[in-house]
Amino acid sequence: MNPPVLAFNFLPVRFSADEFKGGLIEFESPEQLADLRAKLGDSHVVAKTRTSIACIPVQADSDVYGTPTTFRTRDHRSLTMRLVQEALLRSVLGWGYKVRRLRRHLIWLTR
């Protein structure tokens, strides 16, 4: 018997705040971005913005990495949605699922 397929096509989200804090680092190269993701991946969401790299702590005891910045959810929608995606992924992984494949907007999970 195949394991169940878990799919989300629509997920209503309500934010508990109009802004969130994080850090910004000047973008230099894709390798720099990959290195930061590897270094901070357990404690931060690391995402490319238009001209910088945002490092948003996702654990209460994590320090801000980079220049301290306040992000307004309505002004940084792409980054905000990246945080939602990461929160959902972390929750599902906490249920015992494993990532099989990870693409930009598609994540395959197995149990």
Structure report:
With 111 residues, this protein is an alpha+beta fold. The chain contains 2 helices and 6 strands. The protein has helices at residues 30-40, 77-94, and strands at residues 19-26, 44-48, 52-57, 67-72, 98-102, 107-110. The protein is globular and about 50 Å long. The model has no long low-confidence stretch (mean pLDDT 86).
Name the helicity range: 25-40%
Q: Over all CA atoms, what is the radius of gyration? A: 15 Å
How many β-strand runs?
Answer: 6
- In percent, how much strand structure appears in the residues? 25-35%
Largest sheet at a glance?
4 strands, antiparallel
Spatial shape? globular
Which structural class should the secondary elements be placed in? alpha+beta
The unreliable regions are none
Q: What string gives the helices and strands in order?
A: EHEEEHEE
Q: Give the count of helical stretches.
A: 2
Spatial order of strands in the largest sheet: 2-3-1-4
Mean pLDDT over all positions: 86
The CA-CA distance between the termini, in Å, is: 13 Å
What are the SSEs and their pairings?
Elements: E1 19-26, H1 30-40, E2 44-48, E3 52-57, E4 67-72, H2 77-94, E5 98-102, E6 107-110
Antiparallel strand pairs: 1-3, 1-4, 2-3, 5-6
